[in-house]
Specification:
about 220 residues; alpha+beta; 9-stranded antiparallel beta sheet
């Protein structure tokens, strides 16, 4: 089956990103864009981001995860350390995050180094999760082959009985990563494909070099 997509195109006209408006620190611009999208483009899942890793087989792999916190130090998400992404990060912590907010016609691409956060921080977030999500972290050996859906559902029922009326402990194989950025690019769609691209690159003195890129 074949389908010609050559006529699929959209004109981006909602905003602009000028170099004179770029703050010295990219996290400030990230925060501004994040809250604008969160408040005015409710159709977007604002904290959904794609994380790219280099797998043990040497191939890049992308998947969508949820950003749970960001600070001036970096971007935090949670997962199983035994998952494909966890194993990939253990071998090569160089990762890429990307956000695409179609409603705002904006994209952000973040290159950075991933590292585990402190265990007490993972404990605190795990305790804040709904019990169903806590149990899900215990049920799933993420990325491993599973016999059937029924097996997972039965395992969940068994764990619900085991922990009825009890606190659910955070599994040792589950926790948070922080991605510390070394480069952040902001993309704002513009008419005629003359998009705005502003790139921040971290320098040895920990200041950011800012440049406009050709679209």
């Amino acid at each position: 089956m074949e389908k010609d997509l050559s006529n699929y195109r959209k004109s981006y006209e909602k905003s602009e990103l000028l170099l004179k408006d770029a703050p010295e620190n990219p996290i400030e611009l990230f925060q501004k864009w994040f809250y604008e999208v969160d408040n005015f483009f409710v159709e977007d899942e604002t904290n959904a981001m794609t994380i790219s890793t280099i797998g043990l087989d040497g191939f890049p792999k992308n998947r969508v995860v949820l950003l749970k916190r960001f600070t001036h130090e970096g971007f935090i998400f949670y997962t199983s350390y035994n998952s494909d992404k966890g194993k990939a990060i253990a071998q090569n912590p160089n990762v890429c995050l990307s956000f695409f907010w179609h409603g705002a016609e904006r994209q952000i691409i973040i290159k950075g180094i991933a590292e585990k956060i402190a265990e007490n921080l993972s404990d605190g977030y795990f305790e804040s999760r709904p019990r169903g999500s806590q149990l899900g972290a215990l049920v799933s050996n993420q990325s491993e082959i599973v016999a059937s859906r029924a097996y997972l559902e039965q395992k969940l029922l068994d764990l619900e009985k085991t922990f009825e009326g009890k606190e659910i402990p955070r599994p040792a194989h589950w926790g948070g990563y922080i991605v510390k950025p070394i480069e952040i690019e902001f993309w704002q769609g513009r008419p005629n494909r003359l998009h705005d691209r502003i790139r921040y690159q971290l320098q040895p003195d920990y200041n950011w070099e800012i440049n406009r890129l050709s679209p």
